[in-house]
Amino acid sequence: MAARILIASSVIxxxxxxxxxxxxxxxxxxxxxxxxKTISSHKIVIFSKSYCPYCKRAKSVFKELNQVPHVVELDxxxxxxxxxDAISEIVGRRTVPQVFINRKHLGGSDDTVEAYQxxxxxxxxxxxxxxxxxx
Length: 135
What we know:
CATH superfamily: Glutaredoxin
Number of domains: 1
Shape: elongated
Distance between the termini: 75 Å
Function: Has a glutathione-disulfide oxidoreductase activity in the presence of NADPH and glutathione reductase. Reduces low molecular weight disulfides and proteins.
Strand content: 5-15%
Structural class: alpha+beta
Helix content: 55-70%
Largest sheet: 4 strands, mixed
Order of helices and strands: HHEHEHEEHH
Keywords: Disulfide bond, Electron transport, Redox-active center, Signal, Transport
Pfam families: Glutaredoxin
GO molecular function, one term: glutathione disulfide oxidoreductase activity
Number of helices: 6
CATH architecture: 3-Layer(aba) Sandwich
Number of strands: 4
Signal peptide: 1-27
């Protein structure tokens, strides 16, 4: 009898846990959906804040490569903080900038500059570095 009660209690707990957590797993928040759609819709995406010196540094790398990224300035959006939370959910970082190339997360400012200096960024973008300006 005690075993049946234990099994029934366990089943109820599993069902309750599913009902509580499943909606967030099944349907992402509107902000997560926005981030994912933005990343999938553009070759280069930078989630940025207009006043941030690290963001300016990352954006300047693409200018040197004669590339125009799609920039989302989080400080200029009412939902900017929620989008930043969504980015954190997706990549595990809440800092800006966060740079994506061809739907893949490159990283922040230091990662972007490092990829530029090593030539990896030009490879990811499929461009000839001779066409780029010097950084």
